[in-house]
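Hi F.,

I've been meaning to write this up properly since the lab meeting, where we talked about keeping a consistent format for the predictions we share between groups. The idea is simple: the sequence comes first, exactly as it goes in, then the structure tokens exactly as they come out, then a line or two of notes. No screenshots and no reformatting. I'm using this chain as the first example so we have something concrete to point to.
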Amino acid sequence: MNKQPSVSIIIPYKDNIKYLFSALNSTLKQTYKNFEVIIIYDDENKADLKNIRKYLKMNHTKKLPKVSIEINNRNLGAGHSRNKGIRKSKTKYVAFLDSDDLWAKNKLKTQIEYMEKYQCVFSHTSYYVINEENNVVSVRNAKKTLSFNELVKSCDIGLSTVVINRNFIKKNNFYFPKIKTKEDFVLWLKIIKEVRFIRGINKKLTYYRKTNNSLSSDKLLSLINGYKVYRFYMKYSIIRSIYYLLILSINFVRKNVFRRNN
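Output, unedited:
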């Protein structure tokens, strides 16, 4: 039997110890076993380090994968912290998990087997949206294939659902840009221009947590950074950037106001 391809799970951490251990538990319970976890500690306040190390020590057994902590000297932001994790990894694939999100136990197994079967360098999955009390409030379904023209109008890829081939990232120098929100959107757009379309798995394998104090909940900041995506990263004209920002905003409202469970 062929050995399972190796995966690095990259988790940026800043000031949400309340959810981190649940996120870590969801990785350690994966049915897929050939992976490591890289926590990028991105909080200038080092108070939580002791509790994280205590948790890892209490949960450490020889059967569990390697879990390491990389400590940033200063706050770099989630995007740059993920870049640091990518550069530290030496595995075939990298997977991203925000520290307040969760994975279903068969998430990696399903996704890696899919990527190996179809020889794709990037994949994402459907996911549940949950609130602070772990209640499901909506769902996001991944399309089987996603084109650039579809993605540029609506960012329908959940960051914590994504797995990418690490050599593809390094070869093309595809990393998260220096922007506080929408950094994942910029990267996905760069990638899809290279691969032409992105494969999605319509299975709900991730739980994305929507909190009131998250950066993504800051509507003004999201609008500003949405404009930056089109104007400065995609190099669109001012008018074209405003046009696409309007479409992006309309699609955001459709997804978040008209919620429904499937």
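Notes:
The first strand starts at residue 7 and ends at 13.
The chain has one domain: 7-212.

If this format works for you, I'll send the rest the same way.

G.
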